Sequence to fold (982 residues):
Amino acid sequence: MDPEVVDTLGPLRFAVPGGSLTAGVLAVVFAALVLWEHRRLRAVRWTVLRGGTAALAFLLTAQPRWSAQRLERVQGRVAVLVDASRSMAIEHPSRAQHVQHLLERWDGEAEGVPLWRFGSELQTVPWGPDASRPRDDESRLAAALEELARGGEAEGLGAVVVVSDGAANDLDGPIDVGELRVHAVRVGREDLRDDSLVEVHADRVAFLRQPAKVRVVVRSWGGGGIDVPVTLREDNEVVTEARVQVPDGGEGVVELPFTPRRLGRAVYHVSIPRADDDAVPANNERAFLVRVGRDRLRVLLVAGAPSWDVRFLRAFLKQDPSIDLISFFILRTGSDMPMAEPEELALIPFPTDELFREHLGSFDVVIFQNFDYGPYQMAGYLPRIRDYVKRGGAFAMVGGDRSFGSGGYASTPLEEVLPVELPSASTPAARLVLTDRFRPRPVAELARHPLLALANDPAASVARWASLPPLDGANVVRRARPGATTLMVHPRRRGGRSLPLLVLGTAGQGRVLALMSDSSWRWGFTAGGLTGDASAFERFWDRALRWLARDPNLEPARVTTDRERYGPEARVELRALLRDASYRPYAAEPVRFVLVDAVGEELAAADVVTDAEGRAQAVLRGPAQEGAYRAAVHRGDTRLCEEHFLVERGGQELADPRSQPDRLRRLAESTGGRYVDAPEDAPSLDAFDASVTRRRSLDEVAPFAHPAFVAFAALVFSLEWWLRRRAGLR
Amino acid sequence: MRPVRTALLVLGSCCLLAAVVGPVRALGEASRVELRAVAVADFEEPRPTARRRLAWEVRQRTSIDTRLQPGRSRLDDPAVFESPLLYWAGDRAFPPLSNGELVGLRRFIDFGGMLLVDDAAPDDDGFDRSIRRALRRALGAGSLRPIPRDHTLYRSFYLLDRPVGRVQGPPHLEGVERGGRMAVVYSRHDLGGAWARDNLGTWQHAVVPGGERQRELAIRLGVNLVMYALCLDYKDDQVHAPFIMRRRGGSP
Fold:
């Protein structure tokens, strides 16, 4: 059959710079010229003549032109796209079974007709009994159609017949499928009897012993409205319950308060009762995951004497609203003579027992800044501090004439957790410190480490450190402990080795920082005064605190899931940034993504290789059973990082499982397709219009650029000039 | 008072232990706390020995390690950023600060420095007018205000009721607050006059009307001001600490 051919003209345009706007101006100018001529001579013939030449001049200068195209209408191919999301599994018989019956009917006439399925992604599938198996956790119909229209499969494709319930997550926004015609066959009922939790929203982070709340939206259809309790549970124990009234076909909202009692991850379940005739019981329960942390980072700062370094560090910690600071400074030592009666002094005793016995465990970070323990009968507390660190606490020792070896910490329990080895206790005091002014040297190959990263580029960070004011004096340590990370060194070498200045390490489950200087304040105040930029001090200490407190955003290796909650067997997308403890990327290294359950059993895995920046990604099929799971990344036998996620039986996919005929109808009508309200009403495949319109040719028509027209115009201009001369006009 | 006395006895015992442990030495002279003076034009310091004496008193009375030979800088000299505590004493009017000096002063305050201004001739308004003009130009109009009597600096080390210096002066100090801290403290009591002592140990100026008791209180105010520069509102923390600790509870 010959294709139907249609000729059409394209829109008028002008080849002059500025297009229509310039052409409009030219038209006004030429019209004004003719009008002026008419007023001057008051003779029709001259006006007509001038009008003719003006029109020709306009056509020559504006150069109007247009396109002529020839279109042909040809028969394209038809394809079938079936919904494989979990909402297709509901009803009896299920929506998926209806689809299967339809596919079986079409199978005989489906020679050469491609079949796709959509859910979270577009997949081609063979015609057969498994084609419509519903297991995807999303209904991304619009994304699937757009991918189909853009992809190589679109070649020769005239129409797509979508078979779906229309309960798609992305169908309400604009959709761009080009010339593709979309026909829709609706499956499923819209008059379901169903109560569901359509939305459960709680902040991902909650704080220990601080009230939090979860917002729950309940919807009900077909039951004449409900008045039901909404129950919040943690570990099968009821946390709270509240009633909600929901009109038929409407929504009810309730907020349930809860107060986390334990640090770490907590899984909460929200549920409503299941009516006997509830078509989708799975959406009567939802779960959510909360990361429970402390409301503020609790820092204990103990200083052996007021100093500028103490002052600026305390001021920095104090001004940060996310830090709960307890600070104790020794304002007077035994050798000081205040020349006053005790009641004239504003001094209080150092509450060592309260701090280091009763409340030590409640601090996230403990900082000893130029503090010597000896004078305060603290030797008995040092083992407690050591154990606090090994259990997961964080400790920082900042230098000064009362720190490290000068503070008598050699061979004490605290030295066991320090990331540096101290000179022996018998070392003369003069050899425990350096008193000269110096510029610390960051270890260039570790310049990506967050404590050194003053700029995005490692080389720029090193340069920035070099530009900062020098420091005054340093504590001498023997060396960094094996396994510790030395980030900065003193320029002076001793015994052929650089003297460590800033060292990080771990002790048991805890983290420890050692800064062998008491003049980091110069990176702020002095640098600010000299250059106008005082940010290095705050940046350094902010990163140091966050590193010590294991801020998740500062962990060297991180893995993230694309969602926090999935349905059974969902597509779980994982991305990881993998670096070693010194923040050097694991570049081009084989790693393994795994999904594991609560007891550590591996459920899915993928082996990938990292890129040069230590990035890797993988897609895994999620667990089939509801519950709490972890996604982890392993390098060899070492687990680098992990992230938690949930699998719900209902989930967002089943939150509103009603069939949506209006959405499908709009989709079909907007693309020139046909809407069929039930699969049994669907015609044979060849009855769906798959014609496509193609452009056979496109020509540009520019008659006023033709030499003959130019010659004609020149002739008319000459004639007018001659006639006017003859009549004695100018 | 009894519990306080007992507590301090305990503290004193601890301190005796510190003395047994042995003396400590700073990480170099530059790491000691310095009471650097502001130099303006060619003017001499009105009380040249005052800062040295106060540094000595602070070192003797507190745990602060001070520099006994403090330096002196113009406000447009980068060396002004060597110490976050500046002492500006004057006894006469001085010419307007240059733009460089104004920028230096502004930066000094903005980046966390504290300026102690001491009018050594409170009976004459020459220095007073000049310093107010300088502070107004550098920090904005209306920034100098009376410091309330319950401010932390009256209890940063000693418990004090009011400011006094060589003269009894007004019952309050004035100050400029920046970011919750007193960035400028202005005294019209000639504090340096009460502190100044010659090399033979003789006080250089009579203190009126309170005599040696008033001198001692002036020294205590100096100690408190240095302590405040280094600790800011630390004493407010201390007052609230028991409450905070009780409220916290919890375990690791």
